[in-house]
Amino acid sequence: MGAEGRSIAYVHEARRGRSFVLLHGMSASPAQFERVARDLYERGHNVVVPRLPRHGHADRLSTALARLRADDLYDAANEYVAIARELGERVTIAGFSLGGLLAAWTAQHYRIERCVPIAPFFGVSWIPNRLMSGVATFALRTPNRFHWWNPILRERQMPENGYPRYATHAIAHSYRMARSLLEEARTNRPVAEHVTIVTNAAEVAVNNSAIRRLYKNWRRFCPEAIELEVLTGLPPSHDIVSPRRSRKLADRVRPQLLRAIDPELV
C-alpha cells in the first residue's frame, strides 16, 4: 500500500459528541478528503477517512480494482459505522461518487444522525438509466478490462494518489449495488435521521437523473428529513472534492460541502 493511499484519522484524545466518516471515490484515495477532514477535526470532531477496499496501492497501475465486489463495500460500510460509533455519540457519513453510493446505502440501513452522498454513483451520465442494467450485465459477461480515465494523459493523469484506470467489472458491480438500493428505496424509508444529497448541475460522469429518482423515492417516506442540494455555476466537472485535481474548483466548493456535512458549527 502506498503511503498516500492509507486511511486518514484525525482523532482527539477522547470520544466526541460527533464523529465523521468520509468516503472517497472509485480509483481515488483518502487524500481526496484530506482538507475537508482537517476542517472538521479543527471544529472539534473526530474524523476518519478510510481507504476503500482494493484502493490505495503504491503501484498506480495495480489491477486490484478488478477484484472489487459489492460484498467488499457492504462489509466495509459495516466496519466504518462501528468505528464511527466508537468515536462519537452522533455519526455522520459522507462520501463522493462511489463513496457517495456507499454513504447512501448506509443511510438506507443504519440509524445514524446524518448522511451526505456527494455526486453518488447511480449510473453513468451519458448512458440512459433504463439501459444501464443491460450495459452492466454485458460488462460482467465479457472479460474484465481496464480503461484509462483520460485516454490522452493515460498514466500521467493526476493526482498521483489515485489510479489512472478503472476496471469494467468494478463499474458493473458498483452499478448493481446502486440498482439494488434504488429498488429498496421504492418500498422502504431510509433509516438515517437526515440525508442531504449533493449534486453538480454540470456533472459529467454520474447520472443525475438516477440520483433524483433516489431522492424522490426517499422523500415519499420522510420529506422533512431528505434534502437535495444542487451546486450550480460550476464548469463541467465530476471531482469537486480533491484539491490535487483542481485546487480552484475544490476551494470554491469546499464551503458548500462543509455546510452540507456539518451544518452545526462548533
Write the layout of secondary structure elements.
Blueprint: E1 8-10, E2 16-23, H1 34-42, E3 46-49, H2 70-87, E4 88-96, H3 98-109, E5 114-118, H4 129-141, E6 146-148, E7 165-167, H5 168-187, E8 194-200, H6 208-221, E9 226-231, H7 247-261
Parallel strand pairs: 2-3, 2-4, 4-5, 5-8, 8-9
Antiparallel strand pairs: 1-3, 6-7
Helix pairs in contact: 2-3, 3-5, 4-5, 5-6
Provide structural commentary.
The longest helix is centred in the last third of the chain and has 20 residues, at 168-187. This protein has helices at residues 34-42, 70-87, 98-109, 129-141, 168-187, 208-221, 247-261; strands spanning 8-10, 16-23, 46-49, 88-96, 114-118, 146-148, 165-167, 194-200, 226-231. The mean pLDDT is 94. It is α/β, with parallel strands linked by helices. It has one domain (3-261): Rossmann fold (3-Layer(aba) Sandwich), CATH 3.40.50.1820.
End-to-end Cα distance: 35 Å
Low-confidence stretches: none
The counted number of beta strands is 9
According to CATH, the homologous superfamily is Alpha/Beta hydrolase fold, catalytic domain
Largest sheet: 7 strands, mixed
Strand content: 15-25%
Count helical runs.
Answer: 7
Helix content: 25-40%
CATH arch. level architecture: 3-Layer(aba) Sandwich
Alpha-beta classification = alpha/beta
Question: For this structure, what is the CATH class?
Answer: Alpha Beta
Instruction: Give, in spatial order, the strands making up the sheet with the most strands.
Output: 1-3-2-4-5-8-9
Write down the overall geometry: globular
Mean pLDDT: 94
Radius of gyration: 17 Å
According to CATH, the fold-level topology is Rossmann fold
Number of discrete domains: 1
Order of helices and strands: EEHEHEHEHEEHEHEH
